[in-house]
Amino acid sequence: MKKCLLTGFVPFLDFKVNPTEEIARALDGKVIGNYKIVGKILPVEFKETANQAIGYYEEVKPDAVIMLGLAGGRSKITPERIAINCSDGAPDNTGVTFQDATIEEKGPAGYFSTLPIRHIVNVLQEKGYPAQISNTAGAYLCNFVKYKMLHHIQIRQDKVKAGFVHIPASHEIAIQQQALPSWSKHDLEEAIITIIESLD
Ligand code: PCA
Question: pTM of the entire structure?
Fold first, then answer.
């Protein structure tokens, strides 16, 4: 059976919970479609996140990697098209911030997701889940870990599908913070299950 490394993040900034953490925990060990899921939680720390993610990649040797992040404010499930070679913006959970910083000196300007993002969006919409390709994952931790993971896979010349999917806030977050579009935890989890089922 194929293996899928599914990562989520701990809470960050003003968010008291992170639904991506809950989904990665809930799906860990499950068999979904052609894949056995290995769910792992990543810290929101530039110093640690990519090392841990790549460490899990080497430990699990997955056939597919789906990294999840919360994008508070988005209303749809958004598979990310690209990761850019730049970190910039808000502080991580240890207070570290970057401005206009290159992630990999010798790396390309960007890496495209190798997940079938158009197919994923189509399958989600057919099942009734609003979804849209996103053309920017920002320049915070999610972009950083996606860039690092795709760079690692590229250097190793592995034939592994990998990419990043941002998800909207859960109702729990929307109750704590005003004016955020939100989904039920159930629907968020079902949407991620749908994505995994859609993979070969
Ligand atoms: N979302 C953040 C980092 C952690 C998370 O869940 C991001 O979009 O970069």
Answer: 0.98
- CA-based torsion, 54, 76, 127, 22: positive or negative: positive
Cα 199 to ligand 1 centroid, rounded to whole Å: 24
3-state secondary structure 167-199: ECEEHHHHHHCCCCCEECHHHHHHHHHHHHHCC
Ligand 1 within 6 A of 140 CB? yes
DSSP 90: S
C-alpha–C-alpha distance, residues 129 and 188, integer Å? 9
Cβ contacts of 36-39, under 8 Å, gap ≥ 24: 36/1, 36/2, 36/3, 36/4, 37/3, 37/4, 37/6, 37/196, 38/3, 38/4, 38/5, 38/6, 38/62, 39/6, 39/7, 39/8
Decide: 69 in ligand 1 pocket, CB within 6 A: yes
Query: Can you name the CATH fold of 2-197?
Result: Aminopeptidase (3.40.630)
Q: Is the CB of 142 under 6 A from ligand 1?
A: yes
The per-residue pLDDT for range 33-84, each reduced to its tens digit, is 999 999 999 999 999 999 999 999 999 999 999 999 999 999 999 999 999 9
CB 137 within 8 A of CB 166: yes
pLDDT digits (tens, 9 = 90+) for 154-167: 999 999 999 999 99
Hey, how many other C-beta atoms are within 10 angstroms of the C-beta on 154? 14
